[in-house]
Protein 1
Amino acid sequence: MQANNALNYDYSVAKCFTYATILFGIIGMLIGVVIAYQLAFPELNYLAGEYGTYSRLRPLHTSGVIFGFLLSGIFATWYYVGQRVLKVSMAESPFLMILGRVHFWLYMILMIIAVVTLFLGIGTSKEYAELEWPLDIAVVVVWVIWGLSIFGLIGIRREKTLYISMWYYIATFLGVAMLYLFNNMEVPTYFVSGYGKWYHSVSMYAGTNDAMVQWWYGHNAVAFVFTVPIIAMIYYFLPKESGQPVFSYKLSLLSFWGLMFVYLWAGGHHLLYSTVPDWVQTMGSIFSIILILPSWGSAINMLLTMKGQWGQLKSNPLVKFMVLASTFYMLSTLEGPIQAIKSVNALAHFTDWIPGHVHDGTLGWVGFMTMAALFHMAPRMYKRELYSKKLMESQFWIQTTGIVMYFSSMWIAGITQGMMWRATDQYGNLAYSFIDTVTVLIPYYALRATGGLLYLIGFFMFTYNMYKTMTASKAIASEPQNASPMAA
Amino acid sequence: MDMETIRELQAYGYIFFTIFLAVILYSYLYHLYRSEKSGERNFEKYADMALRDDVTDAPIEPMSPLNKAKD
Ligand code: HEM
Ligand SMILES: [Fe+2]
């Protein structure tokens, strides 16, 4: 462990996960665009037999972007940021190097089996938790390996204090471990009763209890997969790229504990007006409103970090991606609490406003931050400057336009839908039948799908830019301190 | 127990819990600022961990003098 001149950070595992992020990003988003067009043009459901139907593809889209694209992005940035803020190289520990590789390959094998089984229609029917029990066990193994990786690296660190990003990565690890275990408690039917195939299972919980556990999981998956690790990323990459220390480190600590505590109680907002106890619903509503505070605490901390440095928005597209990401974070964490108010939810629930909200967060916050992180890492990992700033600028505007088309169409569609469902004539009869709402919404579905297509095109531009950076860009002599070098 | 008592207990529980949490939150804030004022710790310097993160940079707070990276 004696430091010498040759000691460098080892990015081989981070690179592997970078490729996986790009691969699953393309697969997941492509399927997303397909199912979006299917909603607008139903004939598209019949292109590939049972394998091309909306119902088969939808879990592939969600699992693909969440557990493929985003999770790989989290792992890629972890294997990059972890070493740097702990000031220790993975190369110093052969054990951690092997562990990192095993982590990557087991994860890839698992993901491939997951994709195949979902295409075959094998799943538990629990949203965002579709994998059957043998795969759930494999997920646990992969997760434990990641944990060993995290705590192994922490064990050999030189920096005594853990940087705030580390807190968030650790919280991601612990949070998901807890959620996944409890929500996926399932009974393998074949072994218990002889019914079904050997890989089939049913949830251990029934009825309302199942719904509560499921949304405790679903809601906190948003917390610990869509929010916490992305905050880990932005707390490292925005200061590093802009050369500005975090505006207030104390605020980052306070927001951390605030977020950890408040998030866990807000899950009831997914089950308003359902059969769960009334107090659970009210608690979910109230904690959702309180949740604005820690969420905006982090987001404002990031914006204030750029205080006096707004010129960088013009000169550096990476800063632009990250600032827009935190702005979309603020938007979705304001929109969410509004939808969690009972009377608003009575209108919004089951409508397209919900996917509208989802994609403010996922496309604007999660997607932008993940791509910006990989862009920042590329010159350092491949020792080449970023291939094209121009391409990056156009990508930014194309994707931003895509997101705006996505949420504006879904806001209008959702509120229209909600209003039509509840409209009555003077005798109290429903004014519209279900199909009336469907016909009205078709143009908005086409708009949304096109917004998604723009985002996908932007993702291909990102992929091309990354590929060229890895293979053809100008080599750089020394690692850039802050702003990532890029060719015009 | 009748419904009314339950409701009453819930209300007491709710108010105490709220006060308890608010106290914890403000104590944490107080703790952060007090330990900075008394010179015990300087939280803001930790922000530099993201900026000075070369493997050869001196740690902001080294683990122990032994495995301190040399510069
Ligand atoms: C303060 C923060 C937030 C609150 C209070 C909140 C609240 C809500 C509410 C009330 C719903 C709709 C439930 C329904 O009627 O079906 C919802 C859905 C959802 N939100 Fe959020 N949200 C927040 C932030 C976010 C962020 C930042 C993301 C993503 C990055 C996100 C992702 C989702 C997803 C994926 C769903 C859909 C769940 C489903 O029905 O499948 N939320 N949220
Ligand atoms: Fe939620």
Protein 2
Amino acid sequence: MSTESLSIFSPQLAARFDALVEKYPLRRSALIPMLLYAQDEIGYLSDAVMEEVAERIGITTLDVRNVASYYSMLRFKPVGKYNVQVCTNISCMLRGAYDIFEHLQDRLGIGHKGVTADGVFSLEEVECIGVCCWAPALQVNYDFHDDLTNEKVDDVLASYRAKARSEQAEGGSAHA
Amino acid sequence: MPDVTFTVDGKKLTAPAGTLLIDACRKAGIEIPAFCYYPGLSLQAACRMCVVRQEKVPKLQTACTTQVGEGQVFVTESAEIAQARKATIELLLGNHPLDCPVCDAGGECELQDMTFKYGAGESLYVEAKQHREEQKWSPAVYFDRPRCILCYRCVRMCGEGMDVWALGIQSRGASATIAPNGGDHLDCEQCGMCIDACPVGALTSDTYRYKTRPWEMNHVATVCTHCGDGCKVTLGIRQADNGTDIVRADNRDKSGINGDFLCAKGRFGFDFVESPDRLTKPLIRNAAGTLEPATWEQAIRHVASKLKEVRAAGRAIGVIGSNTTTNEENYLLQKFARTVLGTNNIDHVRSTDYPGFAAAMAGHDHRAASLRDTQTAKAILLIGGNPTEEHPLLAWNLRTNFRLNQARLYIATDSPIKLERQALMSLQLPVSLESGGYESLSDFLGGDDNALDFGAMDDVIESRPTQTDTVPTELTHAKTFREAVLAEDSLIVIFGEEFRGAAIQKLVAWGLGKENVKFAYLGDYVNSRGAADMGLLPDLLPGYVPVSEPGAFGEEYANLSKQPGLDAVQMLDAAGRGELGALYVVGADPIASYGVDPAAFENTFVIVQDIFLTETAALADVVLPSASLYEKTGTVTNSYGDVQLVKKAADKAGVKTDFEILVRVAGGMGIDIKKLVPFGTTGKGGVTADMGQSRGAQSGEADRHAVWLTANNLEPRLSPFDPLAVLDEIQRLLPAYQLDRLNLFGGNDVPSQPGFVPVSDLLAQAAHQDVVLPAHDGLFTSGTLGAHTVALTEIRQYQHSVSDAVVAETAAD
Ligand code: SF4
Ligand code: SF4
Ligand code: SF4
Ligand code: FES
Ligand code: FES
């Protein structure tokens, strides 16, 4: 597909997709990785994302929706800049995950699947994220934070808030 | 595959190796319950209802995916299996609303049947039900999420069967749901096949929802009144104040020529019968010049005396028949014209050139393809047309044949069509419909490399750099296409109105030169073929016998003139010149079709028999309200020459069948009806008297009809209004209509044989003028009927809005 100019993805991602669809015996095998990468770049699977992915593979948008809706880690609505995913599965639960989750709700002022008004954070309760040995744990985008206490959670939040602020300042000066 | 022997419930069965156990059992009369299995569609194995015990296999097996092999032993009913099925149903009922008392499917529901059989009325599951409101997906299709048992039949039917792929399944587990392609609406062909396939009441149709229960209807199997494919359709009938209501149309027992299939027109296009625009009283133009309701007696008397008057005055009379009346009515109409009115001025609005096809096929038996052949043929060459839109059943057959038998489909058209998705090769022809240049393809197939002028495609292929550069590529492709077609051992050639007269001749001659080539020539309406076969033609009698050499008809028909009459266009011209004394129109709208100035009829007495007040009827002197195809009995012949029985399903107060009207008019004119309709003991005492032996059947004195009836073990018909009396006569006089009556009356399609046409006919055809007027009705239009069908009108509007939205979206991008 040679529609880079019309693509809603970055040139890098578009190029990656071009290679990906050719990689498998069936083009549609590239669907799930494409959805994941697209979500990482755009933030969520918008209608436009699914339409372009469908077109790149040569399947219907309905097909894309059918697959995408099966996976709980693919989402159809925007999340915050930092998506906080708290594990409440068995190991974490036994080590106080629900307290952590409640604490986060208090601190951020949002519930499960909520997004803060400034768009910096969103919160989600998730199943096991694979770090049971350091439970309780949470994941912010692709970063892990484990062995949590309420205080540690506050530090984690503060670090991301600071990061968001400095990035915004940078972005602002770059524009100025 | 070699046959294998295996045991089911202690019975030894034999089937080809690899047959699915469920199919093998069904064939042997052993029923295995199944929700997700649907014959002809891909296997899903999603419902676990079909589980059976196979010897030496540790777990229960799904019969819908188990292939039979030598020596296997199965048990299909046991306490263990019943328990497994019951558990499956319990799970399904876990979130089922159990609103059977109001559900459309109640009484015909596979889930209900199974629940009764396996008794899962009490459940161990106490989860709260997830309710969702009913959703309207289109003017045709509604979805009731909670009733869905996720069998995927609809998804596969729409995708594999229809090649539309408009349905999908979203989310998972308990929240999985069937979803339409438009998010909350369907952008599809609105065929309703998904509704038909749904084993429960999750998909319902707008025409039938909440109207009645299956056991409150009478079910009458008849033939769809719309396109030239002639699907068998079962109408659900209920009593109403002014006759009966048709509440539903489906293909209930799937026993017809169409198997599983019906398109939107067949399934939803029946409400024209109760349209408020329908004519229900005869109308006579009064002194003030307006049409005024009259009684049948008045109207018939008026028509009869006027016709007698015009005939006595020696003025010309013209008759124009219909594409949607039965064979018997068409036959009777031409016999009435020829023997009572004494004229060969008879025609119909021809949507295609069947006389030309008959001439080309004359003398070649078994070269006509039936519609069923298109589902089994190994190779098919489709030239022109767009079956997906205009011949939906043919398109379904071609898709099915491709999917299940890997049939090789070759398509040659002037613009791309959807069926190319199933085609092995397609060839874009350098012709436009207007130029009629399809003929050159016959030359090309015949070996003339220069026949196709790809230069003419300049405007079509924009990217062509230079002429010399690309013409060879197209020509090479065309040659490959030709080689592939020629290499086929057997072939069905399907074509339509793009070929007329000499062009048909040429194409058929090419095909006849090869062995195992069969032909199908497509017409537009339910009985377009029958209209031509029955001799609604100025120069040809029934069976395409030329009037100039009438053969047996010379003896049968008193007053038969050997002079060909005027065709429809010539009749209208004659009227314009003031030379037509009367025009008798049955089920046609020549004024709209040919765009004639109504003023042309000032000096013509116009009689119209129709369902609606058409443009022609509006200026008629007498209008006679007639019954639709759903309100009469008889036979019709589809495009492929398959004859089927039409059964009277509904009733409409005030109207009469075209058959009865004609008989009454003839009676009013003082004609001996027995000469027109062979009923009772005809002639000189019929069966009991002169059997013709003493003086020979050709002496003209024996009662030929009675002799024929006796020879065929048939009783004389008792009523002059019995169309089957005319069917007897048709069968007696038309070699092409030697019908297998047992099958015909059993509701099956039986082939006619167009090859049985006198070869002498060939020359008589040459000077034919082209009066073909193709209708090109699409998926949701059907001439006058379509315009008066609310369900189709709504779908048409909806389809517009959906495609407009798409256009707007693309424009915004
Ligand atoms: S109506 Fe026909 S085309 Fe539309 S979704 Fe149902 S099966 Fe598919
Ligand atoms: S809607 Fe009907 S056909 Fe489709 S999955 Fe549900 S139950 Fe099966
Ligand atoms: S319109 Fe044609 S394809 Fe559709 S149901 Fe009627 S006969 Fe069949
Ligand atoms: S249970 Fe929380 S990480 Fe595994
Ligand atoms: S019919 Fe076999 S699993 Fe559904």
